[in-house]
Amino acid sequence: MKTLYLFGLIALAIAPLHGQPTNGAVYWSTVQPDCSDLNETAVQLPNGNYSCYVTGTFVWFASGGMWGSTIRVAAPATNPIGVDYTFYNTSGNNLNLDTTVNGSSEASGNEVDFALAANQPAEVELLGASGTASKGVYPQSTGSVWAVFYCPDEITCENVLPQLLYSALPADPWLVSVPIVFDDATWTTWSAVGINDSTHKMSLVIYNEDVSATTYNVYAYDSAGNQVGQGTTPSVLPEPLVNGSYGEAGTYGALLSDVIKTPLPSGVIKVLIDGGTLYSGVEMLQVTGLPGGTQTAATSLQVAYDSSPTTVTSAVPVRRKSVRRMRVPPTPKTVFPALPK
């Protein structure tokens, strides 16, 4: 859906060009690398060199209040990488957050970027919306994080695998890891298997990866494959198309019981989220035990590509191999600073 071909135009508009550092993490190549395995062409950086890249979205973060979110990533052993995170609220608008990187002093902004040497890890803690803390305590804020990873070759980019972690300490003693939704892995229909009863709760997050606002049908099936519930989400805002580039989209997060309001059977169920012909990214979580209880546990659920229950088999669309974003970063890029080692 989005590509970064406009990055080259941005680079040409930046003057003067920033010179290549004499030390630090060099996440580019002096010659244009082959990025064809990533289904894209290398982007030219402001220093005149080239990088392959991969992009994706963490469809939901929750920080402040009882929630904490951190993003972890490490450069592969092969080469350094450049890392760029941009923050948005649930309506897809820019959101300034207070953050720390590897325990550094707090910083505020809509974006965090840095370079990592080979094998170097980083953890970005999302504290809460800037300017909202009272005595060090932030109110809860939610939204999405768009991530871009730059690499000197395609193999390095193929091996970058970030994760976002939720925590609800001290109320609940668990830590939940969720994967990124890469931009070449979006789809129209998703499903997961979980339990939703008096002591097990499923939740879902839908990120609209298309250009039209849409509602999503949510279905539940029991252990015999029978449909036992159905609901429809509110309309989720699309990725806006402005000046030829796609922006960040809206995100909808809720308990399953907020969407399917009829009681569901005990035991394992399948939950299917159907966007019709429109593309999305989906995350589902499972919480066991009463909130705030000593036995509470939580985990992310494996979310699978699926097909609409209203589509005949012969008409199932082919899943796209490359869905790239035409996204212009919010500010012109310089060469990212290296994190201390």
Characterization of the model:
- With 341 residues, the protein is mainly beta.
- Residues 1-23 and 320-332 have low confidence and may be disordered.
- Strands 1, 2, 4, 7, 9 and 12 form a 6-stranded antiparallel β-sheet that branches.
- The chain folds into 2 domains: 6-182, no CATH class; 189-307, Sandwich (Hypothetical Protein Tm1070, Chain: A).
- It is globular, with a radius of gyration of 21 Å.
- The two termini are 36 Å apart.
- A hairpin with a 5-residue loop joins strand 5 (97-101) and strand 6 (107-109).
- 5% of the residues lie in helices and 41% in strands.
- The protein has helices spanning 6-13, 154-158, 256-259; strands at 43-44, 50-63, 68-74, 81-89, 97-101, 107-109, 111-116, 121-129, 141-151, 163-168, 172-179, 181-182, 189-195, 200-208, 217-221, 227-232, 241-242, 245-246, 251-255, 268-274, 280-288, 297-300, 304-305.
- It contains 3 helices and 23 strands.
Topology:
Elements: H1 6-13, E1 43-44, E2 50-63, E3 68-74, E4 81-89, E5 97-101, E6 107-109, E7 111-116, E8 121-129, E9 141-151, H2 154-158, E10 163-168, E11 172-179, E12 181-182, E13 189-195, E14 200-208, E15 217-221, E16 227-232, E17 241-242, E18 245-246, E19 251-255, H3 256-259, E20 268-274, E21 280-288, E22 297-300, E23 304-305
